[in-house]
Amino acid sequence: MRRLRPLSSVQIGVEKMSKTDVVYQELRRRILSGELVAGYRLVIDQLSREFGVSAIPVREAIRRLEAESLVDYHPNVGAQVSRIDEDTYEEVLTVLARLEGWATALAAPRLIGEDIERLRAIAAEMDAALERADLPRYGELNRAFHQTIRTRCPNRYLIELIEDSGAKLDRVRFNMFVLVPERARASLQDHYQILQSLIEGAPPLVLERLVEDHQLKTLEAYRQYKRRTPASPVVF
């Protein structure tokens, strides 16, 4: 892996990020993208040299990743990129579908014009990403679409549940459309339907079911993928 420049010179906009934040963000990106695979050991001394920092920011970044279930700590082994097996993925996504639908129904009456315009822009970007076959980018935009809606959900605990559950699946969801590219086009149509329903002020129960079904369609697409490739067990 390439050596990063010293973190004291890294800036986002006009504000500097802390060394811990930069290490955390970069390691998280590598895990979600699949660059660091399940079981990969995160060696603090090695990462300290790579990032040009002391062990303290690296250790703190790893703790944050562990809190998100992206990293596991094992005695006598150390920190490793965690694994998500197929059963866990299906169980968590089933719960997440229900929670996401509920959050959308609660958020809908509180969306403002700026939110709708942002959703339009994200949907247009998703369309463009599909046209150029940039499926990882499509996955990122898919997440941003739902996050934009969730920001208006008044139930903070519900949002926390969704984000905690979602963190367990991010590696899968970021790469889902690479595994099952045919789902991406149908998913885009789902997003346009959700957007139109929000604009038209659809009843909360209609929105809840629409979003829940949208999430469960992705799960079904994954199950179909596994039936087509039974000899390839996927552990993320």
Automatic annotation (TrEMBL):
<keyword id="KW-0805">Transcription regulation</keyword>
<dbReference type="InterPro" id="IPR011711">
    <property type="entry name" value="GntR_C"/>
</dbReference>
<keyword id="KW-0804">Transcription</keyword>
<dbReference type="Pfam" id="PF07729">
    <property type="entry name" value="FCD"/>
</dbReference>
<feature type="domain" description="HTH gntR-type">
    <location>
        <begin position="17"/>
        <end position="84"/>
    </location>
</feature>
<dbReference type="Pfam" id="PF00392">
    <property type="entry name" value="GntR"/>
</dbReference>
<keyword id="KW-0238">DNA-binding</keyword>
<protein>
    <submittedName>
        <fullName>Transcriptional regulator, GntR family</fullName>
    </submittedName>
</protein>
<dbReference type="GO" id="GO:0003700">
    <property type="term" value="F:DNA-binding transcription factor activity"/>
</dbReference>
<dbReference type="InterPro" id="IPR008920">
    <property type="entry name" value="TF_FadR/GntR_C"/>
</dbReference>
<dbReference type="InterPro" id="IPR036390">
    <property type="entry name" value="WH_DNA-bd_sf"/>
</dbReference>
<dbReference type="InterPro" id="IPR036388">
    <property type="entry name" value="WH-like_DNA-bd_sf"/>
</dbReference>
<dbReference type="InterPro" id="IPR000524">
    <property type="entry name" value="Tscrpt_reg_HTH_GntR"/>
</dbReference>
<dbReference type="GO" id="GO:0003677">
    <property type="term" value="F:DNA binding"/>
</dbReference>
